[in-house]
Amino acid sequence: MKQDVKSKIATHQAGLRPATRPVELVGMDEEELVSLCGQMGEPPYRGRQIFSWLYAHGVSEFSQMTNIPKGFRAKLGEAARLEALELDRESKSADGTEKYVWRLRDGARVESVRIPMRNVNGVMRWSLCISTQVGCAMGCAFCLTAKMGFIRQLTAGEIVGQFLAARRLLARGERFHNVVFMGMGEPLDNFGATVKAVRILTHPRANGVSAKRLTVSTVGIVSRLRDFVSAVPGVGLAVSLHAADDETRGKLVPVNRKWNLRALIDECRELPVGERRRITFEYVMLRGVNDSKRDAKELSKLLEGLKCKVNLMPWNPFPGTPFERPGDERVEEFRRILLAAGLVATTRTAKGVDILAACGQLADSSRLDGPGGLKQLNPL
Ligand code: SF4
């Protein structure tokens, strides 16, 4: 049975605060905003106006909603609130990458990364990498976020809020060309909030980002892949592979013990990703662990006939870890083997390594001291 809007709003508000606290507007979809306005005696179009103010204009104050009558703005200001997070810290890499640490209402912190990219014509474009959880339960061996453990899910408002807050920090006329859900957390382990956030960000009236420019990365929660692709068609899917045999992948990505490579790849072959879409397989390269010629050949065999792209990511180091990054030559040799097998393969240029903003380097450092902290990483 379709969940009614009232209970959806209740669900949206649940988890973070008791009913007496103000309604969080960021994270509500258009239907919910229309319903909320109806409950407050306003016509449906008022909800659509607020949707536009929240997401297309990204206002941070009710006074900026200039086509909403002053009286209703005041009422709204008493019953609801806008900003779901505030900037706690920012750091800038020598390569122009910026990392933002956001403080959430309960004091938890998550990170987003703004990455500069030049296109073939040399035009600067920005990508934004956002988080979906505080910490992560997946325990990938090479990832700093994993060392935090799982703290809590982010709400859709906190996921969308990272985009809105980061967009406000762009210079006039700039926008985010791409958005990737590759920050802290496993998006499909926070399925409902992730899907809702994607729908809001790609809504035609939200002025966020087009579906084809938004990519969600998963470690391979096989039971959720089909539902996800159906829920947000056209959105890019990146699957973290990181090894071509179960023994190695089981050590790097513990979820492989639940869904092994065969289960994952068989499901990927069947996914309705659309004619023009390729699944991206992410492959973090670790010296002496998964970077041999044999690994490259096994990977080619595993992905044979699958419409996909392999994105090689030489590992980005962080303190206290047993892993090492392979040399450029080894990475290129690995890539050449994939290309010779007919696969599309690219190597990701690491950005923001010096400020711990690159892939696998995001974490709330205050949570990394003590038991389970950086000094307690387990070598393979
Ligand atoms: S790599 Fe992604 S899924 Fe794995 S522990 Fe890190 S954040 Fe979680």
In terms of topology, how is this protein built?
Elements: H1 5-13, E1 23-24, H2 30-39, H3 44-56, H4 70-79, E2 80-81, E3 85-92, E4 98-104, E5 109-118, E6 124-129, E7 133-135, E8 150-153, H5 156-168, E9 176-181, H6 191-201, E10 214-218, H7 222-231, E11 236-240, H8 246-252, H9 261-270, E12 279-285, H10 293-302, E13 308-314, H11 328-340, E14 344-347
Parallel strand pairs: 1-2, 6-9, 9-10, 10-11, 11-12, 12-13, 13-14
Antiparallel strand pairs: 3-4, 4-5, 5-6, 7-8
Helix pairs in contact: 1-2, 2-3, 5-6, 10-11
The structure holds iron/sulfur cluster (SF4).
Largest sheet at a glance? 10 strands, mixed
Q: Which ligands accompany this protein? A: iron/sulfur cluster
The fraction of residues assigned to DSSP E strands is 15-25%
What's the CATH architecture name of the largest domain?
A: Alpha-Beta Barrel
- For this structure, what is the CATH homologous superfamily of the largest domain? Aldolase class I
Order of helices and strands: HEHHHEEEEEEEHEHEHEHHEHEHE
Cross-sheet strand order for the largest sheet? 3-4-5-6-9-10-11-12-13-14
Q: What is the CATH domain class of the largest domain?
A: Alpha Beta
> Judging from the principal axes of the Cα atoms, what is the shape?
elongated
Number of helices: 11
Helix/strand/pairing category: alpha/beta
- Count of spatially separate domains: 2
Provide the gyration radius in Å. Answer: 21 Å
Nearest-integer average pLDDT: 89
What is the β-strand count?
Answer: 14
User: How much helix, percentage-wise, in residues?
Assistant: 25-40%
State the end-to-end CA separation: 47 Å
* Weakly predicted, low-confidence segments: 14-19, 369-380
> What is the CATH topology of the largest domain?
TIM Barrel
